[in-house]
Amino acid sequence: MSALRWASALLRRLAGPNTAEADVLVGDLEEAHRARVARRGSVLAGLLTTIETADVALMLIRNRLRLPSLGMSWLDLKLAVRMLARYPVLSLIGTVSLALGVEIGAAAFAILSNVLWPSMPLPDGDRIVSIRLHDAASNQNESRLTADFLRWRDGTNTLTDVGAGWDGERNLTMGDGTTASVYTASVTASTFTLGRVMPVIGRVLSDEDARPASPPAIVIGQKLWRERFAADPAILERQLLFGDRPVSVVGVVPEAFRFPRVAEVWEPLRLDESAAPRRGIGLNVWARLRQDATLESATGDLATLAKRAAIDWPATHARLRPEVHGYADSFSRMDSDERMAVAAINVVVFMLIFVVSGNVALLMFARAAVRARSKSADLVGCLRFSLDAGRFVARGFVARVRERRQHDFDRLARVHGSDGRDFSAAPFPRARSAEDDEALGGSRESSSPLTLSRALVVALLPRMVHSDGSGSEPASGGTASTEASSATANTGASASARSSRSLRAS
Amino acid sequence: VTKSSPPVTLAEFELLVMVAAFRLGADEAHPVSIAADISARTGRLVRRASVYMTLQRLEEKRLLTTALGEARPERGGKPRRLVTLTREGVSAARATMSAIHAMTRGVKI
Questions:
Q1: Please, are residues A239 and A215 in contact by the beta-carbon 8 Å criterion?
Q2: Given Cys at both, which of A263, A427, A494, B104 links A185, Cβ 3.0 to 4.6 Å?
Q3: What pTM was estimated for this model as a whole?
Q4: Considering only CB atoms, which chain B residues are within 8 Å of A30?
Q5: CB A249: neighbour CB atoms within 10 A?
Q6: Is A20 close to B79, i.e. CB distance below 8 A?
Q7: Does A32 contact B48 at a Cβ distance shorter than 8 Å?
Q8: pLDDT tens, N- to C-terminus, chain B (109 residues)
Q9: What is the ipTM of this complex?
């Protein structure tokens, strides 16, 4: 019945505000589902209902967005698969090129988006902010924030889960009794609320743990628990040496949670709440923006608190100004010029994808052009095209030779005192004498090899372009291609022979 | 003298939907029963989304009308959208069937 429930919810959501229409759709769904359950059992009925719901949902989306039907049919799909299989080399080149282009593009975009628009890998991580106090007199940030943190935590209207802490490294006794250095963080309990962390086992730190009288407690990360304590649940009953004091592990948090930076072990932050302004330990302060708050409204909110602080503590806070930044931005210290330079990489990646797509499109176009020219996609078509091209060039060659020789006849007739009609009856070809060459201006038939080469290139070009077609039919392709090459290779020679024969006959 | 326009002809699936709706009658013709009827008689898999789309198209052509029926217990108390053919719809179905009969009469394939 769960399939029916989510399907009904989906259809109701997609049907929009028209509840009558939604009722009809859901009613149809339920009626069809009940009929299927009676005929085919609940499991198969659930599967079929799921598929059908997806189909109806797509139809509703298409209707809602007023998208035209794609016009794709099962036949189109089969044709596409058949064409891919028929030209495997082309398919392989196209697929690999596009995959490479997409891969590089996706990787570059992922890197750029992390550099230019970083976000914390936590739920709604882009709403986690870092709060700093900037000293206008020294142009430096003030890190002794205990007194300010307490005021911000209790007085802000735009931020929630305001927390503080610091991080570092410390030794921890591992499961095998050895000691190793681990990244640690001393944080307020609100930090776990901020990260919306659910412990894997045990619990997260609470405000109680931060009281001086409470027994020392820590929370460890899942990776450390798995790798150094063999994921032993009994760790919650053990005491470990953390630095130089014994502590109890009260919980294990998921591996993805490393807040504030790369912490593996968290201990409660014990603040001296009586610390004077701009005294005490150095702290980082973080918080989450409330639902309706922005960075600007939060900055304005804290500025109001800062004015009060400046009145209350004029000696220390007269020149302090609060700043609110996205938490992830605090790790990326790039100015606008550097950001522009990094963003320019996007242009290069775009050009790369453009070139790849262009090349694939060119391949497709070449195949389509050859198919259109030969009127057939198979090897017979290719062979016919090659032969046609060869014949076309050969015809031009023959015409040119005829014209040239007639010209020679006329000139020789004038030199030897005879007219062209006598030469037409003379045996031909005869070896041209030196006298003849002199009479003809010393020019022999120099264009023949060039024309022959041209004929060969033109005849072989379509075969080279269409070479991917031979891969699909290896048995017949071998024979046909041999015939094709021999035919095309002989085209120029046979043209020459034909020209000789025809002239001889004349 | 105005020349009367030729009757609208239907595509194959449109004809199947129209005939199924006609056979089921105004009280029983709705998307689920139409899809089931076509599926049972032709043996083909009929997508209900296709039936919805076709009914919508035929209604836009004024070949049929739809209206909400009574709430039904087997549908969790939800109404059916009942389908009724219009006079133009019946004419169109008849014209299409006549064309098919004319073309297929005496032909054995």
A1: no
A2: A263
A3: 0.46
A4: 74-76, 78
A5: 22
A6: yes
A7: yes
A8: 455 666 678 999 999 999 999 999 989 999 999 999 999 999 998 999 999 999 999 999 999 999 988 887 778 788 899 999 999 999 999 999 999 999 999 988 7
A9: 0.85
